[in-house]
## 1
Amino acid sequence: MSARVAVIGGGYAGFAAAVTLAANRRDVTVFEAARTLGGRARRVEANGITIDNGQHILLGAYSQTLALLRRVHGEGAEHDLLERRRLRIEASDGFRLVTPPLAAPWNLLAGLLFARGISFRDRLRTVEFVRRLDRGGFQCSVHMTAATLLEDQPRAVVDALWEPLCIATLNTPISVASAEIFLNVLAAAFASRARDSDVLFPRVDLSTLFPDAAAAYVADRGGEIRMGTTIAAVSTIDDCILLTTGYHEERFAAVVVAVGPHQLESLLESAPGAAQALAKVRAFAYEPILTAYLQYGRALPISQPMLKLDGAPGQWLIDRGQIAGPPGLASVMISTERPGTRKTHDVLAREIDTQLRRSLPGLSAPSWMQVISERRATYACIAGLPRPTAGTLAARMYIAGDYTYGEFPATLEAATRSGVAAARALLKESR
Ligand SMILES: Cc1cc2nc3c(=O)[nH]c(=O)nc-3n(C[C@H](O)[C@H](O)[C@H](O)COP(=O)(O)OP(=O)(O)OC[C@H]3O[C@@H](n4cnc5c(N)ncnc54)[C@H](O)[C@@H]3O)c2cc1C
């Protein structure tokens, strides 16, 4: 029997699995349908420069992702790869929350107490709310929605802070978003080390950040990366995993399936033991994320790289010029889709330009604008949603992907944790 292990999917989950397997001297072959590595976090060329399919932000709490970056790029690489800043939420309407250098959760509590743009009474109520969450271990019922969790909170704070944070991290409207997962994110950021709530902006494109270096790491250890190769089906035969690509079939000792949730069904139709996982992902709904890039003639007039916008239509502005991009390059994010807001990219780009020039007076017309829309950016992280668990799916078959890591919403960290979990299950079972 072949001792080779196949990994299907060259995104962050697939490469987290592949690196873990290669580090444990397994012979790994990664299959990726696209010609660029990274999946939903990948490099895109536009207007003669390199951008990403979507603006991504990492948190200091992304311990698994950061450990993998150290493994594939070497210790000390973080500074070149990521711009680390203390959490600071500044809004175009005057709201401001700055976390001081204190231990968690005091950094958040002090930040809330001295926040600008909300009344003193509302700040005290919010501090009391966070202390209550902290005392309760940031836990609640699995079925509770974020809206229910926040229902007795001051409207001004929900609008300025909680709702934008929930949408940015869960990509799901608060009316249906899982309060449990939202609290897990808050706990990851604010219940342990002060550095966990730091915001990390990639200084390189998202393929360079991890998948490209991970591919080199795997290849250096004898593995193989096959890009532009779509696996059509996974099945088992004679104690082996059989992968079908067009008319070609290939045998492997085991497989880690690390594709997006909507790509699972066609792949595992005839795979034994996959029925339960397939039934769960069939019930998923998906949410889009749209990123608009606008190139202005000179540096944006903001003092730090991130600005919360008024949501009409852009929600967050990242000044790429302050991180590593050319001066004046803005990326504006819009998460989830409100009913009736679907517009052409041209119209949206013009609306976002108007919005930026309204919020940042003095900007001249951009030299180019590009909107990238990911229709299925993430599954909708709704309260009580059953999800498959990263790890063993059936004999010799393992599953990974951002939707399989139960504690977190669809994020890079969920993807890398799931990939490592699947690889560890494989290593344990095939010792
Ligand atoms: C616009 C946008 C913004 C985001 N912002 C953030 C953020 O700020 N912070 C954050 O942490 N997360 C963010 N995310 C979420 C994050 O990008 C995802 O959670 C993560 O990239 C998912 O990784 P994955 O490996 O699980 O899946 P994917 O990236 O979807 O990887 C699956 C891979 O499998 C390949 N594949 C599928 N089928 C086959 C097949 N049959 N054969 C071969 N290959 C196949 C696909 O081509 C793909 O490359 C964002 C996502 C988007 C889209």
## 2
Amino acid sequence: MIPNESSHTEPAPSGGIHVCPAWAGPLLCCPLRRLFERPETLLGDHVRPGMTVLEPGCGMGYFTLPIARMAGPAGRVVAVDLQPKMIEGLTRRARRAGLLERIEAVACADGDLGLAARPGVVDLAVVIHVLHEVRDRQRFLEQLYDALRPGGRLLLLEPKGHVSRETLDAELALSERAGFRPAGEPLHRRSHGALLEKPR
Ligand SMILES: C[S@@+](CC[C@H](N)C(=O)[O-])C[C@H]1O[C@@H](n2cnc3c(N)ncnc32)[C@H](O)[C@@H]1O
């Protein structure tokens, strides 16, 4: 069982969950990060022009801007974060990069990603270095499942070293309970995770 994941319906107690502080947002977007975590390498096989991509836990947009470039002018990125300051930082960076019109940047409530009004419209959900910070992971995964179209995919990555293989396996068990099926295991030196699919 994941620490703090007491049941698949009840939110877990908040003790032990550490949410990345907003002051770290600019650090996460530091260009040096590209030396060991290139968005194009991690995402290039998954994002296609014209896709609608959902990125919960987007931070200040280290992955969001490259996703918007890969999705092209006909694509859309729905970028959601718990912390309004992260969304403000992302919006600034997207405006500067001329990508704002492809990105819908939204601050969400804890436990509600705000996606209920548009089920089944997302082609790909990208959750990178986020799930271990989420208080109620089951509910989070269920919301992603509902937002995806049948056949849509979830790319889930967690940082090796920071998130153990046991925790990742427990997260994958929760994803299965939400309805996801395995669709592959992305290979990366610094992250582990899975490519998951909502069955057609
Ligand atoms: C470690 S940061 C990673 C940011 C980004 N994915 C990256 O790799 O640069 C985790 C982000 O997830 C957000 N987060 C944590 N719990 C969340 C939740 N329940 N719903 C939405 N966002 C959440 C945090 O506010 C933070 O911006």
